[in-house]
Amino acid sequence: MKLHDHGVYLVNGVPQTTAPAGVTEAEAKKGTIAYGILKAHNTSDSMQDLRMKFDSMTSHDITYVGIIQTARASGMEQFPLPYVLTNCHNSLCAVGGTINEDDHVFGLSAAKKYGGIFVPPHIAVIHSFMRENFAGCGKMILGSDSHTRYGALGTMAVGEGGGELAKQLLRDTYDVAYPGVVAIYLTGAPRPGVGPHDVALAIIRAVFAKGYVKNKVMEFVGPGIASMTTDYRNGVDVMTTETTCLSSIWATDEDTHAFLTMHGRGDDYRELKPADVAYYDGCVEVDLSSIKPMIALPFHPSNGFEIDELNENLEDILHEVELEAAKIGEGKTHFSLLDKIVDGKLHVQQGVIAGCSGGNYDSVVQAARVLKGANTGCGEFSLSVYPTSQPVALELTRRGYIYDLMEAGAIVRTAFCGPCFGAGDTPANNGLSIRHTTRNFPNREGSKPGNGQLSAVALMDARSIAATAANGGVLTPATDLPEETWDEACEYTFDDAPYKKRVYWGFGKAEPADELVEGPNIKPWPAMEPLSDDILLKVCSKIMDPVTTTDELIPSGETSSFRSNPLGLAEFTLSRRDPAYVGRSKEVDAVEKRRVAGEAAGDLAALDTELAGVFEALAGAGVAADAKATEYGSMLYAKKPGDGSAREQAASCQRVIGGLANIVHEYATKRYRSNVMNWGMVPFQMEAEPNFEVGDYVFVPGIRAALDGDLKNIAAYVVRADGAVEQIELYIADMTAEERAIVKAGCLINYNKFKAAAE
User: Fold this and answer.
1) Which residues, 6 or more positions from 489, have their beta carbon under 8 angstroms from its beta carbon?
2) Tens-digit pLDDT profile for residues 456-476
3) 226: left (phi > 0), else alpha (psi -120 to 50), else beta?
4) For an engineered disulfide with 153, which of 120, 135, 489, 665 has Cβ 3.0 to 4.6 Å away?
5) Which domains, ranges and CATH numbers included, belong to the chain?
6) What integer pLDDT is reported at residue 733 of this predicted model?
């Protein structure tokens, strides 16, 4: 695999480093597939500052309640575009009594009231439903799940936080600078036994650490595309999220056309390909024939190795993972991998094939072919398979593949995303699970180090998981099986009867008089105040890890059941990374609420003796600070937060318990930074190493004026426990005019209320 260290021209389908005579880089940039789609959806006069409107949107049951509550509080009366509400995330979370189903009933009532599309639990996972029903060539789809990726069907899809979906519901736009576009140039063909997860993990390993495609569009081109079925391409494409790219798009062909036609949407096909000359900001050359079965070891999809490479160096490689596990366990628990080596071979305890990546028809078929007549054994190893939708399950049943899986000892379950985020099939303590799912972050599988539990997940393709299952749990690459095992032809007939009979298709049929059905756990967003001119931040957490995931900011799994209750969910903020954070932040918030209520004439110094000392220290250092005109909030420092999920709760949970700002070295993803701003927190950055600790204070005067300026060289003052004061320099990366206004308003809800009042 080759990563070019400069831009590349694709000339008649062939990469080269120089432009043909008479062709400028600026003109050639217009030759990408991405450019054409972005231009068609841009409502601004500038292609540098995009203001996008999408063709459709989708959310699942741990995000749609908050989105609808936000849009409703902002004045929404009906859904202005097709909005699909799926129920594939909390449908099996046995936590909190009725609250999961209460969310589903709310979703159905919202679909009826506002004119939406409602997919009941167990019918389909979010991205399969969108592939089967909405993705099409040249379209754009916005989803409140980070794995909103339909590039292999010619659709540029973006996963974002709920605030961005609420904007679309309010007929606003998705604002982003024109992204870089990187060519993923495919040649050759995957060898027998190599599946889409293998291809994806190989690409992720090559690009992630370098940030090669961060916030860019990955555009898949080249002759190698033709070697893969569209379902295979879907399996590769969904994993592009793990590179931290903004979106993805693929050149389309007759196989794409056949896929869309099979799903009753042949008219949604058109050929997409680069112009004769197209310029890309980078290029990754991938020889598909060189890729071998892969495994991404805990605790990140980029921690990839060829399975053969791992088996040849078991002890050395696994020892490195154990060292990382020790950091995660923080002395509260122990996780070992070396104890899983028996007679020189790695034994795993669990296999799972599930979700929008592993549950696809082709992947399950290949697993069933491996397991036909096999025996997964009666030992510790277990295998679960979750077909990605009811139509897929119907076809697998009709053709006998479900029988083959079950007869071999596999457990076949309904369409559910839980194994991907810790709400299903959590392994035993110290267990290693191999999964064809999208992520393997720490504790994402559901273990709780704070309770003395730690298990882990390694990512693999369904083919190699099945080979391992057939071998009783001994790690086995699929290429060890005879080549005659493999037949990539997977005949498929799409039967949408479950969708016709169970899905509520309500777009364009809003019933405004209908009432929303709100169970006792469904709570509105608490009131938030506009940003003051001066702010005082208390450092409530300081995380110096190279990257902080959204799973660490707000854990997945059992918390899913509380995501319709902003204050209830906020109790879990940083619970697996910094359990004391919530208490610290709530103490700050309690004082701020007293200030807002007018207690002690709103004088922070009079409300708290420690704060009185802070203002005395500032005055002693010659810093003008008015304790009666300063907003008080908590602050989180992290080096690089926001890798992973699009969940807006990673930001909103900070905000509702007093969060007022993040200070970071850089943001891992655009979507997390967008969430921070949409929830009214200031997205500070800092080049220098942080010279403050938990419990210190950071005073930022004139922040509203700074937000009106160039966002550079923002003076702030650290106040330490001993009264010492030190000036530091902060900055904010570029913000749109609307983003600045949202932060000054205190959150997106306030911004829309103020805008409506002004009109």
Assistant:
1) none
2) 999 999 999 999 999 999 999
3) alpha
4) 135
5) 2-290 (3.30.499.10), 294-481 (3.30.499.10), 534-758 (3.20.19.10)
6) 96
